[in-house]
Design goal:
homodimer; FAD/NAD(P)-binding domain; Enolase-like, domain 1; five-stranded parallel β-sheet; 26 strands; about 30% strand; globular
């Protein structure tokens, strides 16, 4: 009898799982459920539908609903799984279609939902999150209708959304509770550079500032904020508000059948992406899996990780045996032309997870000094103080930051130490970069410090 | 007694050797000789003095003559070592200074000289090579004086020089004997893309064509060329000619004291950069050292390798003990905005050196399909057919080709196989690249072929 695979959620992780299961097994019976009427689209692309860098909402859809039939996957869109009886290997679904389904393997790809912060007035009209294609459609309208917006939360989604509105000519303020934006990604000194750059491009940023209340009637008139340093309270005028204060894994269905949830609040999955229940998998934004260096259980919240986990779960559910190597956590974005890139541990996570680190920090250039058109590149690499192993890196610059990060990520995956990064034979040409790449220079700086 | 180190040649390799010897040892007595009156300048930057991308010739000078004294290195510029009596550890020099010098360690960094092809008329005025700063000065004048030029040889130097003249508005023809340009760097199919791109930007290229004779009186009037396919003979009008048909290692002095020269015609050096004679080193364009994958002795002819070898020889000569890990051979250039990048083995060198290869070849994009502004990226990765190990890669594209190459080079240095490249966690953001980077896609393509 063919294996029956049920995938709950058709985002990047779920859709990839279903498609890879099909690729691995011609005769598996695969069903995928999605609450949204859409199936796999690029969530990371949503902010760019506001700025117009993604021209059409439909362009983001990577797996159009009608395509599922062609790969013999039963896609039940606009449909919610409401109940699972795992003893009987049976689930119940409701929505555009209703009914029951027997399964042999179950893949949770239920994603995350926006976490609402304790702020008054979140229930007003024109207060938005940005998680779905429908959210993006509404926000794109605000780019035309509104003049002033406030984005609460200076993480990746918040900053990318704010950038989009600034590029559409709006007056935008980001309110960040922590001392800097993007602290889940980079250290404070790097974030300072980013904030300065964004301010120069017209974005207002208030850090160390708590959003307390959205004022106004049905719609916002402003956001009352309080400086955590000076305790000064001010109101920022706003026609609309975007709340981007992070997300929570969606785990209720999984928990209902006894699947374990970890400290990160994600569903605990091993390197096969399997949960504590046999043939039950969890992938993507709902799943907790080991961070590459320390093995700490983390919810990566990254598209790259989602598709890689999805592939592993899909193949394994269909009878294969592949492993997910762990999340290094390579992250990148581009704000007003500035690339911000981070991989592995930051100073903060290294401390939190008990890894003693030394760093190589340099301010280099993307081109040799004699060549016109080079740009500043601020670069840090982190090493385990005891072993000299590369454990993280951060780059900020208007070119070649992200691509350089890739070298560090592969280096971490290959467990290289500072001497090996110093011995890295970067390519060189005057029009491209210098003979000793900034990456090698940073290893050199750290090598002296580590005496390795 | 302090070690006495003599370095012959103050190019990238020699200058780095001297400086690193000083860094390692405060009291070493270091003397560096150079026939040119300049010392270390960026040879690779020379073509860009013609186009103006390097603004001033002096900008290329990385180690101005007056700087040597500040690091207590005796730099004898405009001075030639004419004779070495190695039994007596003594050398004789002539030129701006003349005399004799005792040494304990000797470093050959004598570089290479242009190899003159068998073409009639090379002795005319306005027939040039491009190897020295003085060559570049003269060629920069031709960019003003001349209207039409012919470049004989479509390797890196030939193509970069031709590009520079086209950018200055001249009519330029490259004549290449082989079926394609840049074949020391990329396979024919990649070279085809490059040639097409250069032609679209106004460069004339004749491949599979032998330059036979430079016509004219004191100065050239044209170059007579013969198609190797059709045997058709034509004359290309030219006000000046650049000969860029490759270089030969300068080894005569070394050979005079019994230092071994290898099949590549370079001075054979081991991983300590030491020759067959104790405390005699060879580095840079005059040295043959092991290629990383096969151990074949090669003259790399690369600035990156020169400085790395120079560092190793300098430290070892001063009493240290470091090793050069071998040359992967990462090469890159940019022609009319197109990046051409290559590392490790090409199909050609793999065949020549007996490595059975399988490849992953893809035509990808630098951005996700839904994001505006992505560019084509043609990419190949090569693997040892028996072991699955990554042994080479080539990329051509108008952005992010060179930086992606760096990932492949580190991969080769870390001995990764196709499965490990497939597991590479590239960074991803819509404005930067797609979730499965083209590098990973190429590994995926090869993995299927290799069944790994």
């Amino acid at each position: 009898m063919a294996t029956r695979i049920a995938v709950i959620g058709a985002g990047a992780a779920g859709a990839t799982a279903a498609l890879q299961a099909r690729k691995f097994s011609r005769d598996a019976e695969i069903t995928i459920f999605n609450e949204e009427k859409y199936s796999q689209y690029s969530r990371c692309g949503l902010p760019y539908t506001i700025s117009g860098k993604v021209k059409d909402f439909e362009d983001l859809v990577l797996m159009p609903p009608e395509s599922w039939a062609s790969v013999k996957i039963d896609a039940k869109l606009g449909t919610r799984v409401t109940r699972i009886e795992h003893d009987a290997k049976k689930l119940t679904f409701e929505g555009d279609e209703s009914g029951e389904l027997q399964y042999d393997a179950l893949i949770f790809a239920t994603g995350a939902r926006n976490a609402d912060p304790p702020i008054e007035g979140l229930d007003k009209e024109r207060v938005y999150g940005l998680r779905t294609l429908d959210d993006a459609r509404v926000l794109a309208n605000e780019a035309v209708a509104a003049k002033r917006g406030v984005v609460i939360g200076g993480g990746l989604v918040g900053m990318e959304t704010a950038e989009a509105f600034v590029e559409r000519g709006l007056e935008v303020t980001v309110v960040e509770f922590l001392p800097n934006c993007l602290l889940a990604m980079v250290d404070s000194d790097m974030a300072d550079i980013v904030e300065e750059h964004c301010r120069q491009h017209g974005l207002k940023i208030l850090t160390n500032t708590a959003a307390q209340k959205i004022t106004g009637g049905e719609s916002p008139e402003g956001v009352i904020v309080k400086s955590r340093q000076t305790e000064e309270v001010t109101e920022i005028p706003a026609d609309f508000v975007v709340v981007a204060t992070g997300v929570r894994p969606v785990t209720d269905l999984a928990e209902s059948i006894g699947v374990n949830v970890g400290k990160s609040r994600g569903i605990v999955a091993n390197e096969k992406m399997m949960t504590n229940l046999e043939n039950v998998y969890a992938v993507g934004d709902c799943a907790e899996s080991p961070e590459f260096i320390t093995g700490t259980g983390i919810v990566a919240g990254l598209g790259t990780v989602a598709v890689r986990q999805g592939r592993v779960a899909g193949i394994n559910a269909a009878g294969g045996d592949v492993s997910f190597p762990g999340t290094v956590g390579a992250k990148v974005t581009k704000l007003f032309g500035l690339e911000i890139a981070s991989t592995g541990l930051t100073e903060d996570t290294a401390n939190k997870w008990g890894v003693p680190v030394a760093k190589g920090s340099i301010k280099g250039s993307t081109k040799p000094p004699y060549f016109t058109g080079g740009n500043d590149l601020k670069l840090k690499t982190y090493y385990n103080k005891e072993t000299g192993k590369l454990v993280g890196g951060q780059l900020v610059g208007v070119e070649d930051a992200a691509m350089r990060l890739n070298v560090l990520t592969l280096g971490i995956q290959q467990d290289i130490d500072v001497a090996e990064l110093f011995d890295f034979e970067n390519c060189y040409a005057p029009a491209i970069c210098d003979t000793w790449d900034p990456l090698v220079q940073s290893a050199d700086a750290a090598r002296r410090r580590l005496k390795m």
